[in-house]
């Protein structure tokens, strides 16, 4: 399958139009006319990922976090970032990144993680967006559907402590950080994967508890004093299942080899 054909399908599923303005998504490295037989999915394009891709003769890496995020003035072997980019280009490995458009898309990462929790209730898309947009690769108009956050309104309340255990079991993680009383009852659960604290104030009056990653001390302290409940799932922990989601979505149109790469957590517990 040609890379440009894959890009057309990914544009349909995860429209770049719903990515944040500051984001950098799409084909970041590569020749879109190349044939793609092997794809590797990852959260971050680390040096280990690049070496794995070289060893496995990968044609395309699909990452969640963009391998090129802000302006580059030079690419040299003097930095780890430069070395990665040089190796990718020297080995003709393309990189396509799907970041906030993967989070916000219908059946994207926010939906995938919320559904993983297997909670009974109605799922609401906060700040829902529906519009038609032109797909320049397929050369046709397509319907785009997304939203910034997900809210699950449970059929019946549950204790925060039980929700914490559900999160750990469902996502396969050993711990979460939280602000609030474990014995408090919650019914309306908000979720934004990754570092989604900037969305907290937008939906605070619509939820009982907010799930995200990368919560800062003063954000947590303010929430505690305001009587709010927060759960810091972890940035990595809330997004590493991106690789599972991508395998599921790409298997619908790609019949080549697909490899899921799970990097180790960045932070270790001492």
SSE order and pairing:
Layout lengths: L2 H11 L12 E4 L8 E5 L4 H9 L4 E4 L16 H11 L3 E4 L2 H5 L4 H8 L4 E6 L2 E7 L4 E7 L2 E11 H12 L5 E3 L5 E7 L8 H4 L5 E4 L4 H9 L3 E4 L2 H5 L2 H9 L6 E4 L10
Parallel strand pairs: 2-3, 2-13, 3-4, 10-11, 11-12
Antiparallel strand pairs: 1-4, 5-8, 6-7, 8-10, 9-12
Describe the structure.
This protein has 10 helices and 13 strands. Strand 11 (209-212), helix 8 and strand 12 form a beta-alpha-beta unit. The model has no long low-confidence stretch (mean pLDDT 96). 31% of the residues lie in helices and 26% in strands.
A few lines on this structure:
This protein has 270 residues and is of the alpha/beta class. The model has no long low-confidence stretch (mean pLDDT 96).
């Amino acid at each position: 399958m040609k890379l440009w054909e894959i890009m057309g399908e990914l544009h349909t599923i995860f429209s770049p139009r719903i990515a944040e303005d500051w984001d950098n998504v799409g084909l970041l490295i590569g020749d879109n006319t190349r044939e793609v037989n092997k794809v590797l999915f990852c959260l971050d394009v680390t040096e280990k990922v690049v070496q794995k891709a070289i060893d496995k003769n990968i044609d395309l890496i699909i990452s969640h976090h963009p391998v090129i995020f802000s302006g580059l003035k030079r690419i040299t072997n003097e930095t780890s970032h430069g070395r990665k980019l040089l190796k990718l280009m020297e080995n003709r490995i393309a990189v396509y990144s799907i970041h906030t458009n993967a989070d916000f898309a219908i059946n994207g990462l926010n939906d995938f993680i919320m559904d993983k929790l297997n909670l009974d209730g109605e799922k609401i898309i906060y700040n829902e967006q529906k519009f038609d947009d032109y797909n320049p690769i397929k050369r046709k108009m397509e319907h785009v559907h997304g939203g910034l956050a997900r809210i699950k309104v449970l059929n019946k309340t549950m204790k925060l402590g039980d929700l914490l255990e559900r999160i750990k079991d469902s996502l396969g993680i050993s711990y979460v950080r939280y602000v609030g009383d474990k014995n408090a009852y919650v019914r309306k659960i908000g979720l934004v994967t990754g570092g989604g604290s900037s969305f907290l104030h937008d939906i605070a009056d619509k939820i009982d508890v907010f799930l995200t990653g990368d919560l800062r001390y003063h954000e947590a302290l303010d929430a505690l004093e305001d009587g709010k409940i927060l759960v810091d799932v972890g940035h990595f922990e809330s997004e590493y299942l991106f690789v599972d989601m991508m395998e599921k979505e790409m298997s619908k149109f790609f019949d080549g080899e697909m490899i899921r790469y799970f990097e180790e957590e960045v932070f270790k517990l001492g």
